[in-house]
Amino acid sequence: MQFYAGIDLHSSNNYLGIINTDDKRLFGKRLPNCIKTIRLALEPFRKDLAGIAVESTYNWYWLVDGLQEDGYKMHLANPSAFQKYEGLKHTDDKSDAFWLAHMLRLGILPQGYIYPKNRRAIRDLMRRRLKFVNQRTSHILSLQSMLTRHLALRLNANEIKKLKPADADKLFKDPFAALAAKNNISAIAFLGTKAKQMERKILATTKLDKQFQVITSIPGVGNILGLTVMLEGDDFGRFPSPGNYSSYCRCVKSEKKSNGKKKGEGNRKNGNRYLAWAYVEAAHQIIRYCPEANRFYQRKKAKRNGAVATKALGNKLARATYCMMRDQTQFDVNKIFR
User: Fold this and answer.
1) 145 and 87 assigned to the same domain
2) Residue 232, SS3?
3) Is the pLDDT of residue 254 over 80?
4) Are residues 194 and 170 in the same domain?
5) Is 113 contained in some domain?
6) At which of 82, 106, 130 does a domain end?
7) For labelling, which of 23, 169, 174, 263 has a CA lying 20 to 30 Å from the CA of 39?
8) Would you say residue 112 lies in a domain?
9) How far is the C-alpha of 252 from the C-alpha of 25, rounded, in Å?
10) Among residues 206, 223, 241, which one ends one of the domains?
11) DSSP code for 75
12) Are strands 256-258 and 74-77 parallel, antiparallel or unpaired?
């Protein structure tokens, strides 16, 4: 007889539930987030344990990696893709853990992707770089607003990045305004330097990858977009079709219809937000370098509007990327914009 385990994971503790093929509960206990304690709890069932389902929370790395190293078959449950029976009056961590085990036993557990441990840190560093860039942008916007408010002066982002702290004293007579501007300028320079350091480190490791060369063959897609698409997509073989990959990139409509009428929207956040950003940026770039893409964009824009045209072009690029990665071929404008 086989056993199935479900773990409802939290920041400081977890609830472990184990059932058999008859759905009988064999073990249930709240445990501290200690890999040794969890190993001891699982050991009596190890021989016949068919799999362990862990909910995909923000802190699943240590648990999944530790149990995989012990030889357990791990399943990362996608919480946005499954829903418990709505008629239940009471749910808690115990019921959630056994529900995960129950779905695993039935073979209906919606699963997320367990990103390979050896490349996960590189992907996370790329995400951290984007966070630094976003923070730098907020400081740039703050300084631009300050210049417009005090001096009716408009400087673009590139001009702002060239400013030195000493320039604040020349621009502002008020010492408090000058100090605020100095802090903005210093933060912009610091965040920009750190972002560049991370870029160089990632590029030194991944630039020669064949995947990276395939993706950057798309006109307008440079190092940053290429790294984002490559690291976030990782194994493109996990997507059954171009449509599945495009949906994962949030490039398709999220809409619920009945009798031809819109009844609401689906789960718009289901997918990868980093890839969603990357393909919108790629769409903006390719219309500058590829006449065929620009014509496609202008046709869509004439029928609807610029936002819809950008998303349509992003969707086309996402599907094209999937085919390019599947076949390991370079960008061919005649195949994509026939």
Assistant:
1) no
2) helix
3) no
4) yes
5) no
6) 106
7) 23
8) no
9) 41
10) 206
11) E
12) unpaired
On the 0-12 / 13-18 / 19+ scale of CB atoms within 10 A, 11 is: exposed
- Cα(8)–Cα(31) distance, rounded to whole angstroms? 10
Residue with tokens 């996370």: 124
For residue range 156-190, what is the model confidence (pLDDT) as tens digits? 999 999 999 999 999 999 999 999 999 999 999 99
The pLDDT assigned to 208 comes to 67
- Same domain as 265, residue 198: no
Q: Is residue 294 part of a domain?
A: yes
CA dist 332 → 84, 180, 215, 239, 293 (Å) = 46, 50, 12, 22, 12
Largest CA distance in the chain: 80
User: Which residue, chain included where needed, has tokens 């001891």?
Assistant: 40
Whether pTM > 0.85 for this model: the answer is yes
DSSP labels, 249-297 = TT-S---EEETTEEEE---TT-S-HHHHHHHHHHHHHHHHH-HHHHHHH
**Residue ranges making up the domain that contains 195:** 118-206
* 87 and 9 in a common domain: yes
**HSE-CB for 163 with a 13 A CA cutoff:** 28
Backbone angles phi, psi at 329, to 5 degrees: -120, 160
Q: pLDDT tens digits for 14-59? A: 999 999 999 999 999 999 999 999 999 999 999 999 999 999 889 9
Q: Are residues 232 and 322 in the same domain?
A: yes
Q: What does the chain come to in residues?
A: 338
Is residue 317 within 8 A of residue 286, CB to CB? The reply is yes
Q: Could you give the number of structural domains in the chain?
A: 3
Give the pLDDT score at 78: 86
Alpha helices of the chain — where are they, by DSSP H?
35-42, 61-69, 93-106, 117-151, 157-161, 165-171, 175-206, 210-215, 223-233, 242-248, 273-289, 291-303, 306-327, 333-336
Block residue for tokens 């946005």: 80
